[in-house]
Amino acid sequence: MLFIIQHQTSELWLKLLAHELRAAMVHLQNDQVWQCRR
Asked: Which of 2, 12, 15, 26 has the fewest Cβ atoms within 10 angstroms?
């Protein structure tokens, strides 16, 4: 059970990281560097 919870937590963190990186890439492409600092 602990393995399943740990795996799901890792998956959620990776999804959040992917989302944040995509948002940062969009801001950088639009020359909105300050938006990436949050």
From this structure: 2
Q: What's the pLDDT score for residue 34?
A: 86
Give φ, ψ of 25 to 5 degrees: -65, -40
Tokens 């937590």 belong to 9
- pTM exceeding 0.70: yes
Would you say 21 and 30 are in contact if contact means Cβ atoms under 8 Å apart?
Answer: no
Which residue has 């799901």 as its token pair? 8
Alpha helices in the chain (DSSP H): 2-29
Interatomic CA distance for residues 1 and 8, integer angstroms: 11
